[in-house]
Amino acid sequence: MRPSFDLSFYLVLDPALCGGYEATVRTALAAVAGGATMVQLRDKEASTSRMVETAQRLKAALAGSAALLIINDDVEAAIAAKADGLHIGQQDMPVAEARRRIGERMILGLSVETAERAAAIDPVRVDYAGIGPVFATPTKPDHQPPLGLDGLARLAALSPVPSVAIGGLKAIHAPAVFAAGAQGIAVVSAICSTPDPGAAAEIITQAIQRGKNLASQRS
Ligand SMILES: Cc1ncc(COP(=O)(O)OP(=O)(O)O)c(N)n1
Ligand SMILES: Cc1nc(C(=O)O)sc1CCOP(=O)(O)O
Ligand SMILES: [Mg+2]
């Protein structure tokens, strides 16, 4: 059995943008206090041992909260740190291999950037889709062409699993993200690059609530 999860406010932590490893843990704590529901550790430069160390510190810091910890790319680190889940992209490893290695108790997220890939998601192995980039972003310079909000809506409708939107998103976009049918908004720089991550998280949480209220009025 996998843990239940809430994609609403998905923080992706980049230790370089946060200002180092201590600051990464402080940023996560402040963002979760401000309403973040999921936290991903994404450190493209780190060794597996560094990933495990940071993940363990994050896990300890988040232990008193409901937020779940997801590890980006590094399946060994996710397993060693006993994280709640792993996030992979299309180029990282086959979904079947990732699921086999992490077992049935960990959450598996998969990035999709085209309609074909969204429709092809295997809902037995994959728990959620990361759909992006919605907008161009300097945080991931090698990103695919932006989908825009219409593209997000198209892919979210095709995905057989819940989806979280990512790429160039700020608090102001939250209502449109929920209106497009995604179950959550994922952000990196909107939290990691701000001087006050707790205050920024509170503003995003309020925007998410507005987005959810508007979406429920429409349905
Ligand atoms: C929630 C979420 N969605 C998408 C991604 C991107 O994953 P990927 O395509 O593997 O790119 P990298 O992040 O590994 O550079 C993500 N990390 N999280
Ligand atoms: C990690 C990541 N994945 C993307 C994708 O499109 O799959 S875009 C992205 C970076 C998002 O950073 P920011 O919130 O600062 O724009
Ligand atoms: Mg990846």
UniProtKB/TrEMBL annotation:
Which SUPFAM superfamilies does its entry note? Thiamin phosphate synthase
Q: In which pathway does it act?
A: Cofactor biosynthesis; thiamine diphosphate biosynthesis; thiamine phosphate from 4-amino-2-methyl-5-diphosphomethylpyrimidine and 4-methyl-5-(2-phosphoethyl)-thiazole: step 1/1
Domain named Thiamine phosphate synthase/TenI: residues:
9-191
Q: Write the Enzyme Commission number(s) for this entry.
A: 2.5.1.3
MF terms (GO), sorted A to Z: magnesium ion binding; thiamine-phosphate diphosphorylase activity
Its GO biological process terms? Answer: thiamine biosynthetic process; thiamine diphosphate biosynthetic process
HAMAP family tied to this protein: TMP_synthase
Protein name, UniProt field: Thiamine-phosphate synthase
* Species name: Cephaloticoccus capnophilus
